[in-house]
Structures are given as C-alpha cells and as structure tokens.
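Feature request disguised as a bug: please show the residue count (204) next to TetR/AcrR family transcriptional regulator in the output. Example input:
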Amino acid sequence: MRQAKARGPYAKTPARREEIVRAARDSFAERGYTKASLRDIAERAGITHAGLLHHFRNKDELLAEVLADRDSEEWQQGLDDVDSPDQLEPYLTQLIRHHQRAPELMRLWIELAAAASRPDHPAHTYFVERYERSRAQFVDGFPDEKARARLREGVGPENAAVLFQAVLNGLQLQWILDQDLDIVGPVTDFVRLLFERDDAEDVG
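Example output, currently without the count:
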C-alpha cells in the first residue's frame, strides 16, 4: 500500500526543518553563534519566530542540528568519493578547504565537541557514536590482506583510524588559532606517511 500523504500544518515539516537548518548555518557562519539570533534565522527561513520555535526549542538545539547536518553531508560525500587510499588525499584537501571557507562553523564544531566530552552533555552520545562510526568506516576500507598491505608496516587499521581522526581534528584546531597556518600540506603528508605507495603506480 502507498503511504498516505501528510495533511495539515505538518505536511511540510521535514522540508521546513531543512530550510531552518540551512538558514541557521548561514547565520552562524556570517555572524557567529553569539550574535546570530533566532529572529534573524526565522527571517532567513521565511517563517515567524513562533514558527521556528515550533521546530526547535532554542539556539543550542539548532546549533547541534546544523553541525549534525554538516556531518551527514560530509559523511555521504566521503562514501561517494573515497573507495581507496589513493583518493583519501584529494578528498581531505577538498574537505579542509571547504571548512576554511566557514571558519565560524569550524570553531563552533570544535567548541561543541569539547563540551560534549562531559557525559551529562546533551550531545555526548552523538559525538561518541560519530567517532565510532567514523573509525569503523575507516577500518572497513581494509577488507583483506591486500588492502591492509597498503598501510605502513606495523600499523593496524584500528590504530590508523584513531590517528586519522586525531590529526584531522588537531590540525583544524591549530588553524582556528592561527589562520595563516598551512594545514593542507601536513594532512597530505600524513596520508603519505600512513600508506605505502601502490606498486601499480610505478608500472607503465
């Protein structure tokens, strides 16, 4: 049976939430979290302040949704663009440069991740599961001995996954503190340190 279409004021709720999240992302990126207001976000989304509060109770909840939405987009992009170690370096270069175009969102993500380290923080479970999922995705990229052989001798996929997250997040934190710092070079060097060259690259 086909699912009946939603009726009434909730018919476009998912689409409306997406519009609000996009508006909030723009407002946070332009004004920063402190100066961004729910009224400005509502205006950008084309709804009333009361209408926004129907979907999100406060600005903290909206920030968490903005960052989760960004994570979801990047997660899917990674699945689409990277299916071998050779594709990891250009993907990370593109990802970092994309983040650098919205430094305020990068700063907010770092701040929320640190705050969520407290077990009683509302976003604690989300960040724990996010890192678990990211590590699992990395490890799944080495399904057999041939793939594992691309890693440097003595480095296992599980440890490589932890190092990968530590380097990526740590470099972005350093860049937020000093935006003249080159972090694309170090992250690409790290990928080259982590993986052996594919012998097929030297053929032909």
